[in-house]
Structures are given as structure tokens and as C-alpha cells.
């Protein structure tokens, strides 16, 4: 595991990690696949549970991840999923520059919405847009739309995002600095997910998700069209915190198969 730094297109400095493990491969394929993880709101790459997830994914391909702006050690303030597409784009660019032939993104919660918007090359509210395409994308526990207040956890999230006292709690207790409320909201994930095809896309939603219920996954799957794959998991909760080693392995297997298929399509 090594520390990395990247700079976004709008000049924000991000800190992250490059995770590799010995997979017993010595045939020149060690730079074949990078899996870029995109964490959720108030999470950071230093969290033990995300590091465990990263180590598990690294059994299938090297992992690259960075704190989104306003999170952990990274500069700036979070825009709750808008300008974070530029953050993800910078990490994907780092992986390409490091020599990885294929790059897949896997996002959780806020990061899942970012993965969808990045794979669709959707612009931020300012008009800046990501430019680095990916070979496959995985969304775990994504919102299909913004301003969700129909669950208690999301009402708490909105309190954090929209009130001075919420900003103070986010910074002091959760190490998350909030930039402020949106001026012009970015496109909803459900509005752009249909642009991702033919890039392989996996949408995963749990029927016990306390933030974004299964209706969000179903809406995204319907908008994505038949080329996307949708897993609605019984008993699964929310995002990276609910992942089991077996589910990580299942997702990693889908990624490995899908990037091979994407490579074939490009030939």
C-alpha cells in the first residue's frame, strides 16, 4: 500500500492510496486492471472498513482510491456528489498514467452516484466534465435523484448539508468539510445513466437500505436499459459498510469478466 496525490481539473489536491497484493501472477499482467473505489459521504480512505474492502478487491486487481474533496486529508469542501466527478476523474487518470490497461470504477452511496455520472461523462453544475472513460462501472447503493427526505437517515444528511450547526458537526465529528448548498443542481443519476452504454454497468441495491430503498435501483436499471445488469439483494443494507467478503468477490468477478468483454468490444 502506497500513498498517492492527485490534482483535479479544477485544482483541488486529493490524497489517496494505491493498494496492491501478491496474487501469484508473474506473467506481465500485473498492470492489467485497476479498480478505483469511490467512497460515500463522510467516509475516507483511512477508515478500517474501507481498507478491508480495498484489500479484498485487490485480490482481483490493484486498487486506487482517494478521499473526495472535503473528506479526510483532501483539500476543499464536499459538494455532495457534484464536483466529485472531477475527483474520480483525476484518480482514473492517475491509474491510466500508471500504466493500467483497463480501469473499472466501484462507487458506494454518494460515490455510486459519482460513478454513474462519471461513466456517463456528465458535467458538473459549472459545466466542467470528466474526460477519462472507464472500462466498467459498478454502483452500490446509489441515489437515483437528489433531495431525498423520505427516510430518517437522509433527513439527517440534509441537516448536515444545509445548516450551520450541521456543517460544524460534519467537520468536527466526521472530518468532512462542506462547501455549501448547490446553486444549480447537477443532473440526477437517473437522467444520465442511459448514456453509459455500451460500457458495462452493474447496479446493486439492497432491499434493506435505510438511505436509498430498492426503488432507486429499479429506477436506475430501467433508465440504464438492457445492457446494464441489476442486482437487488435481499437483506443487504447500505454501501461499503454492508459489504461482505463474499459480495466483494462476486462484484470483483463481475468486473474481471466485464472489462474483458469491454476490451473485446473495442477491438
Task: Give a brief description.
35% of the residues lie in helices and 18% in strands.
Question: Any descriptors?
Answer:
alpha/beta; 8 strands; 8-stranded mixed beta sheet; single chain; globular; 267 residues; 8 helices
Total number of helical segments? 8
Global morphology: globular
Order of helices and strands: EEEHEHEHEHHHEHEH
- Percent helix: 25-40%
How would you describe this structure to a colleague?
By secondary structure, this protein is α/β, with parallel strands linked by helices. The chain is 35% helix and 18% strand. The chain has eight helices and eight strands, in the order βββαβαβαβαααβαβα. The protein has helices spanning 48-57, 84-97, 110-119, 152-162, 164-174, 189-192, 214-224, 245-266; strands at 2-7, 13-19, 33-38, 62-66, 102-108, 136-140, 201-206, 229-233. An eight-stranded mixed sheet has the order 1-2-4-3-5-6-7-8, with helices on both faces. The longest helix has 22 residues, at 245-266. The chain is globular. The two termini are 33 Å apart. Mean pLDDT is 93; it is low at 263-267.
Blueprint of the fold:
Layout: E1 2-7, E2 13-19, E3 33-38, H1 48-57, E4 62-66, H2 84-97, E5 102-108, H3 110-119, E6 136-140, H4 152-162, H5 164-174, H6 189-192, E7 201-206, H7 214-224, E8 229-233, H8 245-266
Parallel strand pairs: 3-4, 3-5, 5-6, 6-7, 7-8
Antiparallel strand pairs: 1-2, 2-4
Amino acid at each position: 500500500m502506497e500513498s498517492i496525490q492527485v490534482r483535479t481539473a479544477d485544482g483541488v489536491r486529493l490524497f489517496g492510496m494505491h493498494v496492491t497484493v501478491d496474487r501469484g501472477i508473474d506473467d506481465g499482467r500485473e498492470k492489467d486492471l485497476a479498480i478505483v473505489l469511490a467512497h460515500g459521504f463522510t467516509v475516507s480512505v483511512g477508515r478500517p472498513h474501507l481498507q478491508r474492502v480495498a484489500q479484498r478487491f485487490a485480490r482481483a486487481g490493484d486498487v486506487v482510491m482517494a478521499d473526495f474533496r472535503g473528506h479526510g486529508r483532501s483539500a476543499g469542501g464536499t459538494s455532495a456528489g457534484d464536483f466529485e466527478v472531477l475527483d474520480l476523474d483525476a484518480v482514473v487518470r492517475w491509474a491510466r498514467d500508471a500504466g493500467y490497461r483497463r480501469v473499472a470504477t466501484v462507487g458506494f452511496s454518494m460515490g455510486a452516484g459519482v460513478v454513474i455520472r462519471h461513466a456517463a461523462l456528465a458535467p458538473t453544475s459549472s459545466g466542467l466534465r470528466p474526460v477519462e472513460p472507464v472500462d466498467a462501472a459498478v454502483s452500490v447503493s446509489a441515489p437515483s435523484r437528489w433531495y431525498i427526505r423520505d427516510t430518517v437517515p437522509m433527513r439527517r444528511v440534509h441537516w448536515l448539508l444545509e445548516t450551520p450547526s450541521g456543517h460544524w458537526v460534519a467537520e468536527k465529528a466526521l472530518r468532512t468539510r462542506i462547501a455549501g448548498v448547490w446553486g444549480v443542481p447537477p443532473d440526477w443519476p437517473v437522467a444520465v445513466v442511459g448514456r453509459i452504454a455500451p460500457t458495462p454497468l452493474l447496479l446493486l441495491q439492497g432491499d434493506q437500505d435505510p438511505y436509498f430503498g430498492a426503488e432507486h435501483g429499479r429506477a436506475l436499471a430501467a433508465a440504464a436499459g438492457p445492457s446494464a445488469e441489476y442486482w437487488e439483494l435481499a437483506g443487504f443494507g447500505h454501501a461499503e459498510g454492508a459489504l461482505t467478503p463474499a459480495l466483494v468477490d462476486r462484484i470483483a468477478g463481475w468486473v474481471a469478466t466485464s472489462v474483458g468483454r469491454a476490451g473485446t468490444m473495442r477491438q
